[in-house]
Amino acid sequence: MHSIAGGSPSAIRRIEYPTAVAWSESVLSYNFGDQHPMSPARLDLTARLCEALGLFSLPTVTLVEPHVATDDELATVHTREYIAAVHRVSENPDRPEPTQGLGTEDDPAFAGMHEASARLVGGSLVAAEAILDGSAVHAVNFAGGMHHAAADRGSGFCIYNDAAAAIQRLLDRGVGRVVYIDTDAHHGDGTERIFWDEPRVMTISLHESGLTLFPGTGFPTETGGADAEGTAVNVALPAGTRDAGWLRAFHAVVPQLVEAFRPEVIVSQHGCDAHHLDPLTNLQVTVDAQREVALSVSALARRFCEGRWIATGGGGYEVVQVVPRAWAHLVGIAAGHPVNLQTPTPQSWRDYVRDEYGKDAPALMGEGADLWWRSWEIGFNPNDPVDRAVMATRREVFPLHGLDPWFD
């Protein structure tokens, strides 16, 4: 029998860092069609909720315009051949190139695909530049987080990998070490593979097991290339994992490895499709838990990186109830003004949702969830499938960083 002692929600320290938010309505052109889960309404509703909450007008926040990334910028993480293929499909969507993931069911071809996809990359690049030039300490591109895009192909609703491009920009400009933290329900396979052999980047992905969810990868034994062993970290959670298990897994793996790796910047992906209402996944977490993880990532950046943090969006397909709240919380946390979970959603925003989308918006910014979790320090329960998943990761990776999988 284990102790019932456990963790609780992070204490909020209101530290106001200059924060760049990459936003323009031009990003809404990333649109695979009306029947596709990756609806641009996710971004529209998020931005409107941020505006209605006053987050975009905070003195700490500067809105920056995402540009269309150049081919040279894209080529820092993608092959020239693949970029050329995206151009061709963008100009002639009736001629798909499915061998490169273009014109498939997941990634339907559309006119202007290249420009729309490259603009998402531009949003994360301007976020990286803001960190590099010191105009911001925190930066958010909630339209980004396209973590399935590989160097040479599109996949899983993702054409170009904006987070990878931002990380590479940081490295190219002299940043020595970057930790990438991915809490999307899907394995961050594209970002991981781009940096598979890069010892300066640690990718940590907390996701539903590939046994039950696309892309079928992200197992604990996937730990990085021969010259970067231990820099790919995967926590493959069982379907049905709820807030307590999700938070326990995060806190049993992520802070310890961040401390061991000592990054100079944290880049995070906050896909919110781990939510219990998401139609595409099987995890069962709440907006409240997703906010808690964003607070924890912010605290890690404050502790180890002098605050330097770039946050992106990602997946999330419950367009009204989940995505806008999760990412508005992310913006508020980055700006040093976390939105209380009991805050009512603004009436003007709820009216817009009803008028524009014919749906009822949530009344509050939170769900009233109990965010207590059992701390790893009280012991490993071999009968708990979440604990078994966590221990599998710790056994593979912790010794490579001088950590004990049982006690650290």
TrEMBL record:
<comment type="similarity">
    <text>Belongs to the histone deacetylase family.</text>
</comment>
<keyword id="KW-0006">Acetoin catabolism</keyword>
<feature type="region of interest" description="Disordered">
    <location>
        <begin position="89"/>
        <end position="109"/>
    </location>
</feature>
<dbReference type="Pfam" id="PF00850">
    <property type="entry name" value="Hist_deacetyl"/>
</dbReference>
<feature type="domain" description="Histone deacetylase">
    <location>
        <begin position="36"/>
        <end position="331"/>
    </location>
</feature>
<dbReference type="InterPro" id="IPR003085">
    <property type="entry name" value="AcuC"/>
</dbReference>
<dbReference type="GO" id="GO:0004407">
    <property type="term" value="F:histone deacetylase activity"/>
</dbReference>
<dbReference type="InterPro" id="IPR037138">
    <property type="entry name" value="His_deacetylse_dom_sf"/>
</dbReference>
<dbReference type="GO" id="GO:0040029">
    <property type="term" value="P:epigenetic regulation of gene expression"/>
</dbReference>
<dbReference type="GO" id="GO:0045150">
    <property type="term" value="P:acetoin catabolic process"/>
</dbReference>
<dbReference type="InterPro" id="IPR023696">
    <property type="entry name" value="Ureohydrolase_dom_sf"/>
</dbReference>
<dbReference type="InterPro" id="IPR023801">
    <property type="entry name" value="His_deacetylse_dom"/>
</dbReference>
<dbReference type="InterPro" id="IPR000286">
    <property type="entry name" value="HDACs"/>
</dbReference>
<comment type="pathway">
    <text>Ketone degradation; acetoin degradation.</text>
</comment>
<protein>
    <recommendedName>
        <fullName>Acetoin utilization protein AcuC</fullName>
    </recommendedName>
</protein>
